[in-house]
TrEMBL record:
Protein name: IS200/IS605 family transposase
UniProt xrefs under InterPro entries: Transposase_17, Transposase_17_sf
Source organism per UniProt: Bacillus timonensis
GO biological process assignments: DNA transposition
Pfam families: Y1_Tnp
Length: 134
C-alpha cells in the first residue's frame, strides 16, 4: 500500500461517503452524476480531497475519497452540498419540478472509514505490543 505524507506524518485516509437527494427524489442520471462529480472534484481540491471512485443510483451517490489528516470533512461536505445544489438547479432547471425548494441534498449523509486491516487484526496487533516473542 502506498502511503501519503506531509511534513510530519505518514497516513492513508480513505472514506466512503453516501449522499442522498432530498426526499429521495429520483433525479440523478448519468449526465447529472458526471456534473456532480466534477463539482465534487473542483471543491475537493481546496480541501485536499481526491476522488478515488464515484458512482450513483437515481436518488443517491457513492464516493470513495482520500483526505489528509487536517481535512475538515464536515465543512467540505457542507460546502459541496451547498455549491452543487445551487449549480445543479441552475444548470438543470427541470430538477426544480421535483425539488421545489433550494435544497438538492438531504441534510444527512453517511461517512465511513475504509481500507487497511480488519478491526480484529488491528486489535490483536495492539494487544500483543510489548510482548516478547509474539
Amino acid at each position: 500500500m502506498k502511503l501519503d505524507t506531509n511534513n510530519h506524518s505518514v497516513f492513508k485516509l480513505n472514506y466512503h461517503l453516501i449522499m442522498v437527494v432530498k426526499y429521495r427524489r429520483k433525479v440523478i442520471d448519468d449526465t447529472i452524476s458526471t456534473r456532480l462529480n466534477t463539482i465534487f472534484e473542483d471543491i475537493g481540491e481546496k480541501y485536499h480531497i481526491t476522488v478515488t471512485e464515484w458512482n450513483h443510483d437515481i436518488d443517491h451517490v457513492h464516493v470513495l475519497l482520500t483526505a489528509k489528516p487536517n481535512t475538515e470533512l464536515s465543512k467540505f461536505i457542507n460546502a459541496y452540498k451547498s455549491a452543487s445544489s445551487r449549480k445543479i438547479k441552475n444548470e438543470f432547471p427541470e430538477i426544480r419540478e421535483k425539488l421545489w425548494k433550494e435544497y438538492f441534498w438531504s441534510q444527512s449523509y453517511c461517512l465511513l472509514t475504509v481500507g487497511g486491516a480488519p478491526l480484529e487484526v488491528l486489535k490483536q496487533y495492539i494487544e500483543t505490543q510489548g510482548q516478547k516473542g509474539v
